[in-house]
Amino acid sequence: MLIPIAHEDLRGRRWPYVSIVLILLNTLIFVATHGRMEREQDQTAEVRLHILILSARFPDAEISGDAREMVDVFKRDHPAIYERLANSNRELADPWEAQLLVRDWSPADINAEMASLCTQFDQNRRDSIAWNYAFHPYHPTAVSYITAGFLHVGWLHLIFNMWFLWLAGTVLEDAWGRLVYPIFYLLSGALALVVHAAVFPGSLVPVLGASGAIAGLMGGFLARFPKTRIKLLWFWGLPFWFRPVKFFVPAYILLPIWLGIQLVWGAVSGSSGGVAYWAHIGGFAFGVAGAFLLRSTGIEQAMDQAIEAKVTWEADPHIVHATEFLEQGQFDASIAELQQMLKEAPDSIEGYELLLKAQDKKQDFAAQKQTVAALCRLNVTSGDLPAAMNYYELYLNLGGDKLPRGVWLELCRYLESQQNWERAASEYERFAEKNTKERASVPALVSAARICLTRLNRIPDALRLYRAAQASPVPHLDLEATIHEGLRQCEATDPTPTSPVGTYIGNS
Question: Taking the model in full, what pTM does it have?
Answer without folding.
Answer: 0.60
